[in-house]
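Minutes, project check-in
Item: structure for the 315-residue chain
Input as provided by the requester:
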Amino acid sequence: MISAVADRLEAFEANLAQIVASDVTFIEAIGEDLVAAGGKRLRPTLAFLAGDLVKAAPEAAMQAALAVELLHSASLLHDDLIDDADTRRGAEAAFRRYGNVVSVMSGDFLLARVLGLLADSGEPAFTRLMSRTAANICEGEVLQFQMATLENWSLAEYRHVIEGKTAVLLATAAVGPALLAGAAVHEQEALHAFGMAYGRAFQMQDDRLDLLGDPTVLGKPVGGDLREGKATHSVLVLIEQGVEEATEIVRRHAKEAGDVERMQQLVMEHGADRITKDAIMEEIELAIHALDPFQGHPAAVDLVALVERERERLS
């Protein structure tokens, strides 16, 4: 945790618990699970640091942090059901425990809470930003499904997918406080560019580790994306290189014994992992340079430190 935002993250947890509270036991339980699971709280951290960069009022940064995190949490409840996932952050997925109806409606409940936060902000531009973000998330998820269904595998489409699934939320977390604070347009644009590049690096790294990571560190078996028919960056490099064996493994959702291990071999033998690492490094550099307008600001230093963690995960 970054010390500069530690106190605000504690306040965030308390506010989040209050917002997700419900008189309906199952909704309350799912809300409590979301608060307890926590995760990295990357989006609130970005919101608070970005707010410091543009001198946003504390309540504005908190509003942005809560709205973005609730939107993210709602999308996870829906995604787990769509992906038929067994777990979320090491715990049983909500739809497994409570059923499809409860999980979907609880996700909708969180979206309703987002609407309340947007109304409280009194800023139509922030509402429009969140609307675009929600639409981008939906488009990213459907595009990922469309790629697999139509076998329209390409690195260009993959970029659109990870922007919609991940990067746009990080960008919104960074831009939201700036927008609410009335920051200069060039500052908003810099924070948006930072969030998008950081988000692409973050998701590409997660996808890379899903195939090549250590299961004991990940807390789950590797190859989950392949088994869902998802082609991520390194695999798409192979497909675009014309490695037919890689295409066949993706096409059959890695159902045959040894498919995941064989894909790992192909990725290393054909230099696809090196290409993916280079692509991640490029996004890391883009994110860091996007913060040039804030150079020297303590919050910018902390944001760069966050991005540098992705470089460390490459080793």
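Outcome recorded: The mean pLDDT is 90.
No further action items on this chain.
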